[in-house]
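fyi for ur records
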Amino acid sequence: MELSKDKGDEERVLELEQEQETENLIKSPSNESSQLPPNENKTSSIGKSIGSGLLYSFCSISMVLVNKSLASSYNGFLEKGNLNFFLVVFQAVVAIAAVQFCKMMKWVEYPSFNMKTAVQWAPVNLFFCAMLFTGMASLQHNSVPMVTVFKNITNIGVAAGDYHYFGTAVEFLVMCAFGIMLGGALLAAKNDAQVTLVGLFWMTCNCLATAGYVLYMKFATKTVKLSKFGMVFYNNVLCLVFLFPVTMANGELLTFWKTPAIHTVDYIAKNSFAGFVGFFLNFASLNFVSATGPTTYAIVGSMNKIPTAFLGWFLFNSIITPQTWLFIGVSMCGGFLYSYAKISTQMKKNGTAGKKDDSDSESESKSNKSNA
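which gave:
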């Protein structure tokens, strides 16, 4: 009798332990998302995509405005040229300091510098540097409206690459949105269509470099085993490695050194602020590409020009020409159509997935009843 009593006690203890383990698993944060209904998971995914897009847009527009402020305030002190590459290098240094400080405070985690990881990530920076250089060269040989036209052609190229490399379907309405935006850019450029053979060469190179940058960034975020903050770290370290020699070769470092008029607290403060914005922009870009895809990233990047134009007019008294108004209006129509197409597609996917989940649940319920 005592033996059977001991066995009964042991069984009750084991049952209590199993119940406690199950309760702990249910309460653990890592399993909370898996306990959510499928529709709630999808809503969370859409919310994450919208949030990452808004953060990317805010950082991108802020970066443009801060750099515009720097250029309008201090380029007058330069005898010739500009400090475009130097600004990128300075801001990369600030971003590295920011992410390293976060790691030191144990707010974020990522592994120390590793050459193998750097080699894996290097193409992102090479494409980025090529995009910067060819973009500046194309602006020297083409009018701004023509550059805008080619930027819209680049978006179509990104969508084609997204379909080819990642299997992202391009819906009919999305193609219509591309057509509307490209048509608006062409209409805006019709009275200022200045292009040369050299300019066409540099614009083609810029289109390829931009598309390569966006597409490879998506590939790298999937294949390189790093947290987003680790990617920010490598992005800025390699940017510094590639672009610092450029500032020495093209004389920007020497120009900065020989221009004491810009050695001010205000200039350093604005540059440092731009570096912090760049740190968040790096994170936001990587997060947005990872959450959505190269095509959406490219389209949102184009749409960012609209609030930037309004804010530039308000803050810096920039002139908005009738051609720019036309481009803004048509681009907004294209952007709204693109958003509608993507939301409609997502809702259809959610509806199909929801029906499948209901069917699976019903089958499982019937199976359990038959077993019982």
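The chain has one domain: 59-72+80-345. thats all i got for now
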